[in-house]
Every structure is written in structure tokens, then in C-alpha cells.
Write a structure and sequence with these properties.
With 245 residues, this protein is mainly β. Helix content is 9%, strand content 64%.
Length: 245
């Protein structure tokens, strides 16, 4: 009898280690410090983001950072940020919804944005349409009402590697409008499901910037991220943390 109880307890503990807990809420905070050339003081930005997923996000056997993306989990999301800089501060707000439609391989993200400075408020809305032709791949184009539509495309692809628990994430973006061209190439290597390291290259109107980034999940619920970017105008350092439940 004691042996049966011990076996049952061992099985329960083992299953708890193997099966990752799903989540439906993701809340994050981020601080961005910009040490830009020509400014007398640093520019700091503080942000909070949150998302609610309609269905529980499964996290077993996938990178924790990419679980909702790979699971095609539709959600509502919101964000608020404060940009502290020389001159009037800028407060930004955003509320939106993101939908994956697996049966039709369609993707839609739409929302409203508001930017406030002293004595001025600007409202805008946006929509992003995309296709998910194969697992792990999303190709989109975006439209913003105030700016109108300029030719743009963005792609993201997450795929497993041969090593157990190893994945790669590749992202690319291109836009061209009003004589202004923007290009971006980024990638992340997941050493396991909890840790990623990566880099990014941006080119905007002949100015190029380079960055490195990393994210680590200390538990299935708590993670931290950091990045450093060297731009023609100065350096940008970002640190952040997320909690899920």
C-alpha cells in the first residue's frame, strides 16, 4: 500500500514538472532610457502593457515567450506610456484586439491610440491585416488613419531546431513612403524554452542602428528582458519584466 502511494505521489510530481501551466493574463512593465546626442539630459520612457487571452495559452514544449504567438491565441490588449524629456512630456494610450482565424489563415489586429502633451491631444486608429500560411509564419501589413497607407510589410517566423527545446525566431520589416524608407531585420535564438538571446538591425533613411537583446523566464510566470541599441543619435537601453497568471 505504501509503495502504491509513493508511486502515485511520484507520478503526480513528475506530471507537474512536465505539464506547463497555461495562462490567460500577461502584464508587463518597461523602462527605456535614451541617452541622445544634443540633449542636455537623458530621455526616459516608462510603460505598462496588459493582455487578456480569450482561451488559455498552452505553454508545453514551446518557447514561453512565443507561446501565445505559436498557439494563435486571440486577445484584447492595452498599454500606457510616459515619455519624460526636455520640454513637454508625452503620454500615450492604446487599446486594441488581436484575432487569429486559423480556419481561414487570417490575422487581424486593430485598435485606437491617443497621444497627449501639454495643451494638445491627438487621437488615431490603426489596423493590421495578415496571413498565417504555415505554422509559425505571420506576414502582415498595417494602416494608420492619420498617416494614411504607405507600402509596408512585416514578417515573423518561429521554428524548432534539431536540438531538444531549441527554437529560432526571425523577423523582417520594410516600409516605403514619402521618400522615407525603413528596413529592419531581427532574430532570436532560444537556447531552451526559458532563455533567448538575439539582435536587431534597423535602417531608416540611410541611418543604421544595431541592437542586442535577451529574455529569461525565471519561472513559467515571471520573466525579465533587456536590450541595448546603438543608434546614430545615441544609445537606448531597455529593461522590463512580465508576469502571467
Amino acid at each position: 500500500m505504501k509503495i502504491k502511494i509513493l508511486v502515485a505521489a511520484t507520478t503526480l510530481l513528475t506530471s507537474g514538472l512536465v505539464l506547463a501551466a497555461p495562462y490567460q493574463y500577461d502584464v508587463g512593465a518597461e523602462v527605456i532610457r535614451k541617452d541622445l546626442d544634443g540633449l542636455n539630459s537623458e530621455t526616459n520612457e516608462y510603460g505598462l502593457t496588459g493582455a487578456y487571452y480569450f482561451d488559455a495559452v498552452k505553454t508545453s514544449n514551446v518557447p514561453l515567450a512565443e507561446a501565445a504567438y505559436l498557439g494563435k491565441n486571440s486577445n484584447v490588449h492595452a498599454g500606457v506610456s510616459n515619455l519624460s524629456r526636455p520640454g513637454p512630456n508625452l503620454n500615450s494610450y492604446e487599446v486594441g484586439a488581436e484575432f487569429f482565424i486559423p480556419e481561414n489563415f487570417l490575422y487581424v489586429d486593430a485598435g485606437v491610440q491617443q497621444a497627449r502633451t501639454k495643451g494638445n491631444t491627438d487621437n488615431d486608429w490603426y489596423t493590421t491585416l495578415g496571413l498565417t500560411p504555415i505554422d509559425g509564419l505571420l506576414v502582415t501589413t498595417s494602416y494608420a488613419h492619420d498617416e494614411g497607407y504607405d507600402a509596408n510589410i512585416r514578417a515573423k517566423y518561429v521554428a524548432p531546431l534539431l536540438g531538444a527545446g531549441e527554437f529560432i525566431n526571425v523577423e523582417a520589416a520594410f516600409s516605403d513612403g514619402d521618400g522615407y524608407t525603413y528596413k529592419e531585420l531581427a532574430g532570436d535564438y532560444y537556447l531552451d524554452t526559458t532563455l533567448s538571446v538575439g539582435g536587431i538591425i534597423k535602417n531608416a533613411h540611410s541611418d543604421t542602428s544595431f541592437g542586442v537583446r535577451a529574455r529569461k523566464f525565471f519561472t513559467e510566470e515571471i520573466s525579465a528582458n533587456a536590450s541595448y541599441e546603438d543608434t546614430p543619435d545615441g544609445n537606448v537601453v531597455t529593461v522590463g519584466a512580465n508576469i502571467r497568471f
